[in-house]
Amino acid sequence: MPAPPTFDPAFDALVTPVLRADRDGRVVACNQAFARWLGVSQKRLPDQPLVALEVEGDGLRRALEGLEEADGPRRLRRVALAFLGGEPRFADVWLAREPGGAILLEAHPVDEFPGEDPAQALPLALSAALKGLAHELRNPLAGLRGAAQLLARRAGDGDWRELVELIAAEVQRLSQLVDRLLSPAPPRPHEPLNIHGVLEQVVRLAEQEAGWAVRLVRDYDPSLPPLRGDPDRLTQAVWNLVRNAIQAGAANVTLRTRAEFGARIGEQVHALALRMEIGDDGRGVPESLAEQIFLPLVSGRADGSGLGLAMAQQVAREHGGSLGYRSRPGHTVFTLLLPLSDGGDGGPAGPEGGSAQ
């Protein structure tokens, strides 16, 4: 007897219940979390009509009838789902059409996250999704590390040496991320860091990816005190924001830092905070995604993973900060607010502002 259809390992490891149906609305597969939540075997759901899972009303059916690929995800609040007369389970449901017409349903059980934004479930969901990929990344990273070491012996000085060092640093950062995913450990203690050092690393990555197609502009406040944080996590978060801007067709990307006094982050007011803005002149955030862009698996691009902004928001929270945005076509700004101490080791953040290209 053939095995039931499944997701790839990364999606099957998600703690968020997810189900996939074909373009006609018949279930193709669900992940383990969905089966456990609904109280049914993964083998029994395939080939069932998706709308048959709704216990009362026809909100799911009506949403599916009008759902097109270009619409973006659609949210239904407090939907009651059950399998063949089983006990109903209540969830806020996100529906989206994938390229090719297949349907993806993501359920956020309301009894598990009462009164919370479903994105609060991100730490576990995102960790589980990435852990499934970590095993596959180890071997290629080891190969890249070896190649970088060989290149370093032959590169000499100058630009080639700088590029090899960039490759080696990124491979090391990714290797550490893989190790953390495979062997979870307490977050490493935050340390005083120069936020502009983080931004300069991101600028180098952007220059290598976009070349001269994108103008990168630095607008730094050199008087900022050190920030206590994790440089690798912050590099990843900012790189996700800059890379999104590049992929949105931006011709200009500005990285701006400022001190903000009396900054409110959530329910707390901080005497001093870092305000970091990543601005671009690309296409902007689609209006249909305006309220969902920080949710995992939500993307405005057909080939997007929908994890970049979710991870960036999580990194902001890890540092006691927040991530928000404003957008219209031709002008999008993502704003990262992070609490700052008013002193500490390391001197001012530096360097002077200017244009990277």
UniProtKB/TrEMBL annotation:
Any GO MF annotation of the entry: ATP binding
EC number: 2.7.13.3
Catalytic activity: ATP + protein L-histidine = ADP + protein N-phospho-L-histidine
Claim: Nucleotide-binding is one of the keywords in the record: yes
Domain Histidine kinase: 132-342
Keywords noted in UniProt: ATP-binding, Kinase, Nitrogen fixation, Nucleotide-binding, Phosphoprotein, Transferase, Two-component regulatory system
Function as written in the Swiss-Prot or TrEMBL entry: Member of the two-component regulatory system NtrB/NtrC, which controls expression of the nitrogen-regulated (ntr) genes in response to nitrogen limitation. Under conditions of nitrogen limitation, NtrB autophosphorylates and transfers the phosphoryl group to NtrC. In the presence of nitrogen, acts as a phosphatase that dephosphorylates and inactivates NtrC.
Identification of the protein by name: Sensory histidine kinase/phosphatase NtrB
Organism: Luteimonas wenzhouensis
